[in-house]
Amino acid sequence: MAATVIDGKAFAAKVRGQVAEHVDRLKSGHGITPGLAVVLVGSDPASEVYVRSKGKMTVEVGMKSFEHKLSADTSEKDLLDLIDKLNNDPEVHGILVQLPLPDHLDEDLVINSITPAKDVDGFHISNVGLLSTGQKSMVPCTPLGCLMMLRDHHGSISGMDAVVIGRSNIVGKPMAQLLLRDSATVTIAHSRTKDLPEVVRRADIVVAAVGRPEMVIGDWIKPGATVIDVGINRIERDGKTKLVGDADYESCAKVAGAITPVPGGVGPMTIACLLANTLTACCRANGLDEPEGLTA
Asked: Full-prediction pTM beyond 0.85?
């Protein structure tokens, strides 16, 4: 039996629709419009495309979009001064500094200069600590999107055995914290885990976020398990460049109960959750109820 395909593109569109409805209610009921500021330093082509997409979708859901494009040789002081200005701007509820930054800029310093309440990427050390101790925080967008899809597919993941392959600060670690918060039993594995295939075979939920193309194969998957593939890898095959995940889709889909494709799975959820986080930040800043179903 072929796995159910979890359509991230369709689910992300649904999430954006929910965000737009909440934004409309904020405008009509309270005279408040959420605002997202995105800062891009340099001219990395992939980052430029991503920033344009974020700005377009921000406007589509009725939010204010503030884009700041800085030259690659921008000084650390000038960047920190801009972030300080955005921290103190009441029209800006979310701040995102597009990564990676040029080598002469200290990413940790820059990220931690953002006010935690406006850190819609969820990377500030305060938000990392709050999430790890089960307190209210801003949550990284990609893990939040994965959690939303799991909740939508399973209803509840309480008591399920989950394996997260990958230990990055952006996906692996926060993903494990979110799964724990929803009462799953969680194992964090990685490329150096002994008997990794055997560890993965125990899992009802597999989150592949290790950064190795098609590393997870169908033989590793427990029959009926849900596979969430966070990987985005460009490979050359048959003379063409192809986008693949960290799981070998064809072999895994033959065994899994449900699986996210690449592309069209987790990817679209990241921007949708960025918008959801901005909405959440706006509600918190104004002492209003958080949007139900759009937070962790």
From this structure: yes
